[in-house]
Amino acid sequence: MTKKIKVGIIGSGNIGTDLLMKIQRSDVLECEIFVGRNLNSKGMKVANKAGIRISDKSIQFFIDEPEAVDIVFDATTAEFHKKHAPIFSGLGIKVVDMTPSKIGDMCVPAINLAKCSNSYNVNMVTCGGQASIPIAYTIAKTYPSVRYIEVVSVIASKSAGPGTRDNLDEYIENTENGLKELTGCEHVKAIINLNPADPSIDMQTSIFAQIEECDISLLEEPIKNMVEVIQKYVPGYKVAIEPVYENSRLMIMIRVKGLGDYLPSYAGNLDIINCAAISVAEAMADNLLKERGGNA
Amino acid sequence: MPKILISDSTLRDGNHAVRHQLSRHDIATYAEAAEDAGIGVLEVGHGNGLGASSMQVGLSKETDTTVLETARKQLSNTLLGVHVIPGFATKERDIQNAIDIGVDVFRIASHVTEADITQRHISYVREKGKKVFGVLMMSHMANVDVLVEEALKMEYYGAQGVIIMDSAGTYMPSDVAERITALRAALEGVVGFHGHNNLSLAVTNSLEAIKCGASMIDGCAKGFGAGAGNTQLEPLIALCGRLGYDTGVDLYKMLDASDVAKTFIDEIPTIAPTSIISGLSGVFSGFLKRVEVVSKEFKVDPRDVFLRLGELKVVAGQEDMIVKVAIELSKKGA
């Protein structure tokens, strides 16, 4: 049996609990500890039932047992991560930050997985960022003269927990930062809309771009390739509306169906950011295993 | 005489009808007329509020900063108001900018079941010492108990009142009476009503709201607004006078203001067939222009598009669904 890298999760909400379920399927990651503030929370009960060690000591757990894990997923909030980041850094624990804290290196695996697998703190941008930035990046590569990129995500109301609802401004800012940094386009805009439709709708993200002259046939191949790369770590990712171009305006719509681990499959938003996080954590783990294998 | 605060959204909700193309000249001339008429609050900006100019819901002719500065110069007694939807507008980028320009009233809006996304924006405005109201859009999509619960959340966050919008123009007077009565009993602050005229009931519904305890009413000159338009201010103010409600608005000067509005209203709102379908289906009337354009492009019946959008329970901000539905229908028809 291959050795696994020990990881921890801090934050026992929707994101943290769904990550736990995904880690249990990983060949290289093993969840050593599930940390929150309240042993009676829904997520804690799920973890406890799965036989995972749990703690309600928040960040203090890692200070007390710095050797317990090599990688931690921070699924708290941006405000908490600002306090956690220097602590994890001091303890030598690698961080996959699920919050829109703007601290670590912006990570979208389809674009920069190799680079991020060597970082100490990676930021997973936002769910909408994970869905839209790879397409925006492809558009900007094909049409470097793109003047404006706008991304609009609609997520099911039921998939947005209190943390998400409280962090809409941070969501917008972090998505816009990720877009700018990874596409090189200076003029960007992000919009998020919670949809209360019942039954819940799947997550959808529209990507708009302002391009003077656009031959959409040139985008066909690069977008198809990009979608295939993303589908390797997010199986439910697909193009819902192929590129449409009118009046200098290019539009593409993506739909993300979740794996249905902790929340039902409509929560593609939860799934895409978590699948991306697992993907980078596994790459980090591969590096660590290689280093250790080499030293043995 | 009971006092009624008139919130004039000619330069905000009206902007939907001209795809957010109102110019600084339009804003300056109408703001001057509204001030002169004694309007309580004048809302200004993109139809979807601060920070909403976008490909998704339409790019504005003027920036938020330009329109707010332009209106600010014309107003002294009339308060300057803005509409804010979290998810479009952020506190630091948009709300703070509006505060710096001198906006007096912030109306923080969400879909009727999503009031909790307004918490941080409402409390931010309140901490800065500005007037803040909560707005529940598409209020017909929740039952009365849920509506009251969501309004109470907004009040708890710091809102000094809550306005319910009949965004699709679907209410009957009895629907309005039931909701406003329940809100009046539950809330401490102001209760407001924002009507749309799809089924020709906007003025009637507004008067019904006042009768049941609402003290803030939204409307537009000439009924300017998306689809069949908003509550028309001129008859509303005339009837308030007749019924003995004090709006503080001078009727003749309001009539003059409506003539000023005529200079930028391309088409006086009428109850078009699609507006009736919108009212019956309960779909946001702001979708109308886009539905017409897209339906033409894909050669489908806009009435079918609306009914399908109603079945899908789309909400404002999902304008991209119009294209999707039109494509689906055109494939079916082909």
What does this structure look like?
The complex is a heterodimer of chains A (296) and B (334). Chain A has 2 domains: 143 residues, 3-Layer(aba) Sandwich (Rossmann fold); 138 residues, 2-Layer Sandwich (Dihydrodipicolinate Reductase, domain 2). Chain A is 43% helix and 24% strand. The mean pLDDT of chain A is 94. Chain A is globular, with a radius of gyration of 19 Å. By secondary structure, chain A is of the alpha/beta class. In chain A, the strands form 2 sheets. Chain A has a 7-stranded parallel sheet, sandwiched between helices. Chain A has a 5-stranded mixed sheet with strand order 9-8-10-12-11. The longest helix of chain A is centred in the C-terminal third of the chain and has 28 residues. Chain B has an 8-stranded parallel beta barrel with strand order 1-2-3-4-5-6-7-8, surrounded by 6 helices. With 334 residues, chain B is an alpha/beta fold. Chain B has 13 helices and 8 strands. The model of chain B has no long low-confidence stretch (mean pLDDT 95). Chains A and B meet through strand 8, helix 7, helix 8, strand 9 and strand 10 of A and helix 13 of B.
Work out the oligomeric state of the chains in this entry: heterodimer
Radius of gyration of chain A using CA atoms only: 19 Å
Q: How many distinct helices of chain A?
A: 10
The CATH topology of the largest domain in chain B, please? Answer: TIM Barrel
Q: Outline the biggest β-sheet of chain A.
A: 7 strands, parallel
Biggest sheet of chain B, strands in spatial order? 1-2-3-4-5-6-7-8
Number of strands of chain A: 12
What does this entry show, briefly?
Chain A is of the alpha/beta class and 296 residues long. Chain A is 43% helix and 24% strand.
Using brief descriptors, characterize the structure shown.
heterodimer, A: 296 residues, alpha/beta, Rossmann fold, Dihydrodipicolinate Reductase, domain 2, 2 domains, five-stranded mixed β-sheet, 10 helices, globular, B: 334 residues, TIM Barrel, Helicase, Ruva Protein, domain 3, eight-stranded parallel beta barrel, 45% helix, 13% strand
